[in-house]
Amino acid sequence: TQARPNAPSATLENDRRHLLRSWSALDGPAPLVVGAGEGAWFRDESGRRWLDFSSQLVNANVGHQHPKLIAAIKAQADTLCTIAPYHANAATSEAARLIAEVAPGDLNRVFFTNGGAEAIENAIRIARLYTGRHKILSSYRSYHGATTGAITATGDPRRWGSEPGAPGFVKFWGPYPYRSAFHAVDEAQECERALAHLADTIRVEGASSIAAILLETVVGANGILVPPDGYLQGVRALCDAHGIVLIADEVMAGFGRCGEWFAIDRWSVMPDLITFAKGVNSGYVPLGGVIMREAIGERFRTQAYPGGLTYSGHPLACAAAVACIGIYRDETLIPRARRLGEEIIGPALRAMQARHPAVGDVRGLGLFWAIELVRNRASREPLVPFNATGADAEPMGAFAAACKQRGLWPFVAANRLHVVPPLVIDEQALRDGLAIIDEALHVADGYCFD
Ligand code: PLP
């Protein structure tokens, strides 16, 4: 019999023969072949069910195959699948209106992109045009995407393969109390010293050359670093004092993940630009964008914006955004995320920290948490070295394998497990997943020494 093009056996074969996948070597581990999804679960080709504690790349906020989101995409497909961005259409303008409605303050105008990296590129362009300056300051502990500007702004080692990158980018250290770059003894001191360091960086770079400070409101892929109270207010004050545009990268932290529409709402700070993607429509169709304050939008009142994309405001993606924002509201998923973080995840992870020597630090909010694994709690030596590969990375591989053996799909980065399930996860599944992590931590404990 002839194999169907997508029969399970052919899927992996074609993948191995013809695909170059993100951040992967051709001879790297074989991918899991996924066939179906439902809510906080997905199934592989063998029919095995996985509890998704990753939301894939922290994007599937309303979970897999949400019926209302699927219906909205189907309805839009029946009406208008594609249209050039120089036309107006109902889905795109309604998505822009809703995004402006949930965005803070007077961030009322949206430029749509296909994803997060393009959102960063356009935010950088807008900040440069608005200020007439060129430098972009960003943090070492950051990820902003893989296009030239976004990867140059990125701090983590994924930047290395694209160096030397674009000119005009400068890095600084943000707050990270557990591994303080400032030898701070508590959060308040970390906040104060991180702000003094940023002020120094601005001084020596020359404020009049700095267009923007770009930061993840809550740092995502680099460790779920929740800023100490006062830090974002302090960055806002520095931007105000020097005429610098503040870009809040909310690609991962925004749209409910942190128990707020945007993570920055928690500190009542108003950025000048917000970049978003992922949770805006849970990734059912690629979409991202930049939300800007009124005054920045006005910069383009008579002068055309010198940037564009064939698929800016794609109707299928925008119809999915309209439906997704409706789901967040109708199912009250955002306050629920805040509550699940405070009442279930935080307490459970802290209890694990008390039981397992490998758990060095626990931090997070909403459905955005990390546990940082160490070999020794006193020295805080990470379970794996910085940017570990091969045998050096084995302890984290073994820990992830222990999660997978028990049916949990984990999000593992460096020496951390990120706990980032879909916002729709039911409480029992959340508790079950946390119990699996608790069991798997015995594997990590095995690498600890006194
Ligand atoms: N910014 C942040 C904070 C991200 O986490 C990501 C992706 O993970 C990006 C930007 C890049 O988004 P994309 O992969 O959609 O280009």
Description:
The protein is α/β, with parallel strands linked by helices and 450 residues long. It folds into two domains: 8-62 and 332-445, Aspartate Aminotransferase, domain 1; 68-330, Type I PLP-dependent aspartate aminotransferase-like (Major domain) (Aspartate Aminotransferase, domain 2, 3-Layer(aba) Sandwich). It has helices at 8-18, 55-58, 67-79, 90-102, 116-131, 148-153, 187-205, 231-242, 294-298, 315-330, 333-355, 394-405, 427-445; strands spanning 34-38, 41-44, 49-52, 107-113, 135-139, 169-172, 210-216, 245-249, 273-276, 288-293, 359-365, 368-376, 381-382, 408-409, 411-413, 416-419. Strands 4-10-9-8-7-5-6 form a seven-stranded mixed beta sheet, with helices on both faces. Strands 11, 12, 13, 15 and 16 form a five-stranded antiparallel beta sheet that branches. Strand 2 and strand 3 form a beta hairpin. Helix 4 (90-102) packs across helix 10 and helix 12 packs antiparallel against helix 13 (427-445). The chain is globular and about 65 Å long. 48% of the residues are buried. The chain binds pyridoxal-5'-phosphate (PLP). The site of pyridoxal-5'-phosphate (PLP) has 16 residues, from helix 5.
